[in-house]
């Protein structure tokens, strides 16, 4: 027969339980206090980070204005180079996969590419393509596709409408003509739903900062002959002009730090985004020309 615990033992056990309970409560109070202190510190850090973002934004806006005359000078040089943008876009290793033969033929008449940040930069940008008056494919003087960043990190895409001339509109039944790039210009959907728009990022972040880098990729010259057999550009002339331009841009941009692009998810909304070409061009960070 088991012995009953003594009153003294019962009292001791009750005391142990009480002490354990008090310890748990103290630990919870300590954790809550630490959580409150950490939250206050994080708020202070967030405030400093917001101030830093505002300062970086102000600097970026300032340098966008300084870049404008350099963009104008670059555009003037490029207009003197036959088939510059056709060759440049076709020479990009990943963008070339998004260009059909029909896309390439239309690009023969492209005279200018602008990537224009909106005034506050953080709210988005637009891509503007300008074409020669002799363009036989559509009547638009320019095509604009805009990307609007929302506060929630999502992007609304505003495509353009192309006024195709007779017999030049895409044939979605599988017959010619067939376009990928110019169909992309008119759609509000990225390449993959919920993913960044690859073509937009290539144009904005890779080709636009230094198009000469891709223009001088090694490709057969005959691939870029005009419809009437016009001769290719004077490579030495272009190299000299671009070297001068790169040097001037480098002086303007010394010490400048670019802003990181926000992490965004693209979603499309239908709409017509046809606009004229922008007065200036923003978002350019020059690099060394590569022959």
UniProtKB/TrEMBL annotation:
GO terms for biological process: double-strand break repair via homologous recombination; nucleosome assembly. One of its GO terms (cellular component) is nucleus. One of its GO terms (molecular function) is histone binding. Keywords: Chaperone. Residues 1-26, 246-291 are annotated as: Disordered. Residues 15-26 have a biased composition (Acidic residues). It comes from the Eukaryota. Residues 1-14 have a biased composition (Basic and acidic residues). Belongs to the nucleosome assembly protein (NAP) family. This is Nucleosome assembly protein. It comes from Edaphochlamys debaryana.
């Amino acid at each position: 027969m088991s012995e009953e615990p003594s009153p003294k033992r019962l009292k001791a056990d009750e005391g142990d339980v009480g002490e354990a309970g008090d310890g748990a409560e103290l630990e919870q109070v300590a954790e809550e206090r630490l959580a409150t202190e950490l939250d206050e510190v994080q708020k202070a850090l967030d405030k400093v980070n917001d101030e830093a973002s505002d300062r970086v934004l102000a600097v970026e806006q300032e340098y966008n204005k300084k870049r404008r005359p350099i963009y104008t000078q670059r555009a003037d040089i490029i207009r003197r180079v036959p088939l510059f943008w056709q060759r440049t876009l076709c020479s990009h290793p990943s963008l070339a996969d998004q260009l059909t033969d029909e896309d390439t033929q239309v690009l023969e008449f492209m005279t200018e590419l602008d990537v224009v940040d909106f005034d506050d930069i953080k709210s988005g940008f637009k891509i503007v393509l300008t074409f020669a008056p002799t363009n036989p494919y559509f009547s638009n003087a320019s095509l604009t596709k805009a990307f609007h960043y929302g506060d929630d990190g999502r992007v609304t895409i505003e495509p353009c409408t192309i006024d195709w001339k007779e017999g030049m509109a895409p044939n979605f039944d599988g017959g010619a003509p067939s376009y990928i790039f110019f169909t992309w210009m008119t759609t509000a959907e990225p390449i993959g739903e919920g993913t960044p728009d690859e073509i937009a990022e290539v144009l904005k972040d890779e080709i636009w900062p230094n198009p000469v880098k891709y223009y001088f990729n090694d490709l057969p010259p005959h691939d870029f002959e005009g419809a009437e057999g016009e001769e290719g550009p004077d490579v030495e002339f272009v190299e000299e002009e671009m070297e001068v331009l790169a040097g001037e841009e480098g002086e303007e941009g010394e010490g400048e730090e670019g802003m990181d692009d926000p992490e965004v998810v693209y979603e499309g909304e239908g709409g017509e985004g046809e606009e004229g070409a922008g007065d200036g061009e923003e978002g350019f960070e020059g690099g060394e020309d590569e022959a």
